[in-house]
From TrEMBL:
Radical SAM core domain location: 30-209
Organism, as annotated: Aquimarina celericrescens
UniProt-annotated binding residues for S-adenosyl-L-methionine: 49-51, 85, 126-128
Protein name: 7-carboxy-7-deazaguanine synthase
Family: Belongs to the radical SAM superfamily. 7-carboxy-7-deazaguanine synthase family.
Pfam families: Radical_SAM
Length: 209
């Protein structure tokens, strides 16, 4: 029996693709390096300051054959960053298997709000207060990126940092719309708490996607 489109999406053979593009990683540990980005639609975490709210409704983004996504990606880069939306809404097993079979490094940017699927070379965990990460992802996160919108976010960041492994790199990133107000607070905080690093959305300063 032929699988329906919904069944294909549910099993990760198709994914609601919002956009895909080759650019420079703007944030976190790999900032400044070239990578192919795959943005998957669908997210119910609902951060009020999200700068890609158009990704939230998966129904707006066409189910796309996962192998086609892989073909497009490896044509440009051997580093593929999967982001969203919240990519772990969907099963990432086949996507990462196919990417690795083609020699690509697999990176993910996730809130960790859903169970971890897929085989990842780099996991950027960006937890949100609204829907906390699953416990399983803390020990495997390579970097923790906490968005700072107001002063209370520093306390939340410390709570999250207490759960990751000692090798996880810790970042504080100003929310873009309040950056002028928040950056001085982050600078002071990192100087007083040097286990943290500052992450900036450098792609926005460079005016690239």
């Amino acid at each position: 029996m032929q699988e329906s489109t919904q069944e294909l999406v549910n099993t990760g053979k198709m994914l609601p693709l919002m956009e895909e593009f080759y650019t420079i990683q703007g944030e976190g540990y790999h900032k400044g390096t070239a990578a192919y980005f795959v943005r998957i639609g669908g997210c119910d975490v609902g951060c009020h300051w999200c700068d890609v709210k158009e990704s939230w409704n998966a129904d707006l983004h066409p189910p796309t054959d996962t192998k086609k996504i892989v073909e497009n990606a490896v044509r440009y880069s051997d580093v593929v960053v999967v982001t969203g939306g919240e990519p772990l809404t969907w099963d990432m097993t086949l996507l990462t298997k196919e990417l690795k079979s083609r020699g690509a490094q697999t990176h993910i940017e996730t809130s960790g709000a859903y169970p971890l699927t897929g085989d990842w070379d780099w996991i950027c965990l960006s937890p949100k207060k609204i829907k906390l990460p699953k416990e399983e992802i803390y020990n495997v996160a390579n970097e923790l990126k906490c968005i700072v919108y107001n002063k209370s976010d520093f306390e939340f960041a410390e709570e999250q940092a207490s759960k990751v492994s000692k090798d996880c790199i810790l970042y504080l990133q100003p929310e873009w719309s309040v950056r002028d107000k928040i950056i001085p607070l982050i600078v002071d905080y990192v100087m007083n708490n040097p286990k943290w690093r500052v992450s900036l959305q450098t792609h926005k300063y460079l005016n690239i996607p």
